[in-house]
Design a protein that fits this description.
Elements: H1 2-10, E1 49-60, E2 67-79, E3 85-99, H2 101-106, E4 118-122, E5 127-135, E6 145-153, E7 170-182, E8 188-205, E9 208-223, E10 226-237, E11 245-254, E12 259-270, E13 274-285
Antiparallel strand pairs: 1-2, 1-13, 2-3, 3-4, 3-5, 5-6, 6-7, 7-8, 8-9, 9-10, 10-11, 11-12, 12-13
Length: 289
């Protein structure tokens, strides 16, 4: 992760930045996959390899509300020789977008020609993360599960001129504390609740980056047949222009063994002006851990 960050920075000439003006390289001025609010880990110890394949639809509600995005999403999560540490890689494989000139103007996208619609498609950014289960909690007590995570966003996304992705590296570090209550019998098996806090940053220009404080709350209801997850998360950047995104995520996962379907809804607020829908399946491949 350190070497990848140095490579991304080495491609940019070092010039004195102008801190008096906001860069406008922030979630409010880009597409839904450029600066997403990170998901909160659930704290469940998995010895399996998890492969998530899904399709997304996002609708923006800035300007005239004519902003539509479709993408295919893939996430792979595998244990690193132990249940306590996992390697996770994910990305929107291909995004298709369609938005109006009013949306382009609201995002400060230069328009040298009079386009009736902005349409296109391109690949997204790759995220590489390490999730460490630092402390196992004790159910029905005050001792929480503690998870520590470090994630690198590569500069692999394209379509920067259309403000769909940002061609620069970023990263975040966070810690999540989760408490659980287990029910031996009954329809509900477990209730989990937690909170997260961390640091997130991304390069916004020549010799300049935006640093943000990350936060979130999590709630999980695990039943015999499905699991329902609700979380509220966001971050606060220092530029104070388009860099205060928040979102609510609601997700329903089925318990079907090897292949579990799920559906997810995202309501963005503040500087994340999107509604998002995701549907897909999670493949659970057992290992010897």
């Amino acid at each position: 992760m350190f070497l990848l960050s140095l490579t991304a920075m080495a491609q940019t000439p070092i010039l004195p930045p102008d801190y008096s003006q906001a860069s406008k390289v922030a979630p409010a001025y880009f597409g839904p996959n450029a600066f997403p609010v990170p998901d909160i880990p659930d704290g469940k110890a998995h010895g399996s390899i998890l492969v998530e394949v899904a399709g997304d639809y996002y609708k923006g509600f800035i300007a005239d509300g004519s902003d539509h995005s479709y993408d295919g999403f893939v996430r792979i999560s595998a244990p690193l020789f132990t249940k306590r540490a996992r390697l996770e890689i994910w990305m929107p494989v291909m995004e298709f977008w369609d938005f109006s000139p009013a949306v382009a103007a609201a995002r400060n996208i230069p328009s040298p020609d009079s386009k009736e619609r902005w349409k296109g498609h391109d690949t997204g950014d790759i995220y590489i993360g390490t999730n460490i289960h630092a402390l196992y909690g004790k159910a029905n007590s005050f001792r929480p599960d503690i998870l520590v995570r470090a994630v690198l966003k590569t500069a692999s996304g394209n379509a920067f001129s259309e403000a769909r992705f940002h061609d620069a590296a970023g990263y975040y570090f966070d810690a999540t504390f989760i408490w659980s209550r287990v029910f031996p019998q009954g329809f509900v098996r477990e209730l989990r609740g937690g909170l997260t806090a961390g640091f997130l940053c991304w390069q916004t220009g020549t010799a300049r980056q935006n640093d943000a404080v990350q936060y979130g709350l999590l709630g999980i209801v695990d039943t015999r047949f499905f699991r329902f997850t609700a979380d509220w998360a966001g971050y606060v950047g220092w530029e104070r222009d388009g860099d205060h995104p928040r979102r609510v995520r609601l997700r329903l996962d089925g318990h079907t063994g090897l292949c579990s379907p799920f559906f997810q809804y995202i309501l963005g607020t503040n500087d994340y002006p999107f509604h998002g829908f995701r549907a897909g399946v999670v493949f659970n491949i057992k290992t010897r851990l």
